[in-house]
Specification:
It is built from ten helices and 17 strands. It is an alpha+beta fold. It folds into two domains: 144 residues, PK beta-barrel domain-like (M1 Pyruvate Kinase, Domain 3, Beta Barrel), CATH 2.40.33.20; 157 residues, Molybdenum Cofactor Biosythetic Enzyme, Chain A, CATH 3.40.980.10. The protein starts with a strand and ends in a 6-residue tail after the last helix.
Length: 311
């Protein structure tokens, strides 16, 4: 959910490992903040911390803290910054920031606050961002927090289901499974569901429509076997630019060890533009098995494609 955040202070320092001091304004460039020690060609150009976190820490330690004392460039109020996730956006009409990292390694005794109190909030509650749109920020202005929403396309290929002979269960099962997974990692998903015949023309048109709309992920279900109408992997291989063979090979070997028929699936995984494409079998059991292996890596895949180093 979008939130409006108030900028309480903007702070810079010319040297690393020192507190930052409030200034009237900061100039954001494609390298970060002009004049700040942490600007550069990397993902941690700007540090942000919430006033709410500072006030809680102040109540625990029994003393007040000045803006910038935790080495944050921007102090905001309206939400705790560690509620953000990499890929989220902070912007107003002039500037735009991409959240790149949540927290950091504690400097320990190299941090004056840690030395004084035995703890520090920046490692757990601070975040980092890089500049996507240059401009100027001042205290008193606002930034809108916009969480990254995953756009996921789900395509079921089935002549009979698309003709209304029976109900498609695999496509809705993908959606329900991913919704549950996303809720567990505090993510929102926008789904686009398509039920089409086993047709090369229809599949190409549907996938290309989702690619043109810059969807993050596309799942297909059905048509991965060796039957005469099983054309999904062949069509998708002609669309993706890079195949990611290890994912599907691992799944086939893992489940094929107990269910030899699982080895007959020809499913592929790959990337087209910035969209990941996975071709799943048509059965509910197989869909569950594939998603159990694929879901945990989705965040990392999206981060990698966005150029975010979250290792």
């Amino acid at each position: 959910m979008e939130k409006s955040l108030k900028i309480k202070s903007v702070n810079i320092s010319s040297g690393k490992g020192t507190i930052k001091l409030p200034v009237e304004k900061i100039e954001l460039t494609n390298h970060g903040i002009a004049g700040d020690a942490h600007s550069g060609e990397w993902h941690r150009q700007i540090s942000l911390l919430s006033e709410e976190s500072v006030m809680e820490f102040s109540a625990i330690t029994g003393r007040e803290y000045a803006y910038g004392e935790f080495a944050e460039n921007i102090t905001l109020s309206g939400m705790k910054m560690n509620e953000c996730r990499p890929g989220d956006i902070l912007e107003n009409s002039e500037v735009k920031l991409l959240v790149t990292q949540i927290g950091k390694k504690c400097h320990g005794t190299g941090c004056s606050i840690y030395t004084e109190t035995g703890a520090c909030i920046m490692p757990k509650e601070g975040i980092f961002a890089k500049v996507l749109r240059e401009g100027v920020l001042k205290a008193g202005e606002s930034l809108t927090y916009k969480p990254k929403v995953w756009n996921i396309g789900v395509i079921t290929l089935s002549n009979r289901a698309s003709a209304g002979i029976y109900e498609d269960r695999s496509g809705p099962h993908i959606i329900a499974t991913l919704e549950k997974f996303a809720a567990g990692i505090n993510r929102s998903i926008n789904f686009s569901y398509h039920l089409i015949p086993d047709s090369e023309e229809n599949l190409k048109a549907t996938v290309n429509e989702l690619l043109n709309k810059k969807f993050d992920i596309v799942f297909t279900t059905g048509g991965t076997g060796i039957g005469p109408q099983d054309i999904t992997p062949d069509v998708i291989k002609g669309i993706i630019e890079k195949e990611i063979p290890g994912i599907m090979e691992f799944i086939r070997v893992k489940y094929g060890a107990h269910k030899p028929n699982a080895l007959l699936s020809r499913g592929v995984a790959g990337i087209a533009g910035d969209t990941f494409v996975f071709t799943l079998p048509g059965s509910l059991a197989a869909v569950s098995e594939y998603l159990a292996e694929i879901s945990p890596m989705l965040e990392h895949l999206i981060y990698m494609r966005m150029g975010l180093d979250t290792h």
